[in-house]
Prior knowledge:
Blueprint: E1 3-5, E2 10-11, H1 30-34, E3 38-40, H2 43-47, E4 55-59, H3 65-74, E5 78-83, H4 93-100, H5 102-106, E6 110-114, H6 117-120, E7 129-134, H7 140-151, E8 154-162, H8 173-184, E9 187-192, E10 200-204
Parallel strand pairs: 1-3, 3-9, 4-5, 4-7, 5-6, 7-8
Antiparallel strand pairs: 1-2, 8-10, 9-10
Amino acid sequence: MGLRTALGFKAKRPIIQPLTESRPVEDLESEAILQNCVVLSHRDELLRHMPNNGVAAEVGVASGDFSSQILKINNPRRLHLVDCWRSSRYADGRQEVMSRFAPQIADETVVIHQGFSTEVLPTFAKKSLDWIYIDTSHDFLTTLRELQMSESLIKEGGRISGHDFCGKQGYGVIPAVYKFCTDAGWFLEFIALDVGGHFSFCLRKDPN
């Protein structure tokens, strides 16, 4: 049936470049996964569709730019920020985040977790999150593992979302999302556009 935009227009099944890291996207049952998907204009709009005043986690934080938007737009009761901050590109990010969100860290609205996603996520309690946003390595295997780990952490009716749902060379987010949805029975609820082509996705268990 294809995508529906927020304005009500319908689009045909999107053309997506297959990645060699995994099974080609064309082989997956994407029609069912996409049947009720709505296209949003920006990922800030995505935040307005997420559960409000809940418990959220952002996995892959860098300097906290999107974290700031989450706090401003979504107003979470608690926001877990997960990042290893080890690469030369992001090494200074932790200190910037600590300074930037010092008041929220002090009152425990923001909780910092330093470490790799696949090490930190298993430490979270089951069904403890209303939603999660994943923005880490973007490779197929890591993304798939993060999605699988996230499933047990999300409350009933919650969301799994993430960044870089695009066909950039070496990115495996699209096939990882499609495989996870096909295997676990989740559906694409939203795709949020980005002028640079690094779209965001949002998944939910119930397609309705």
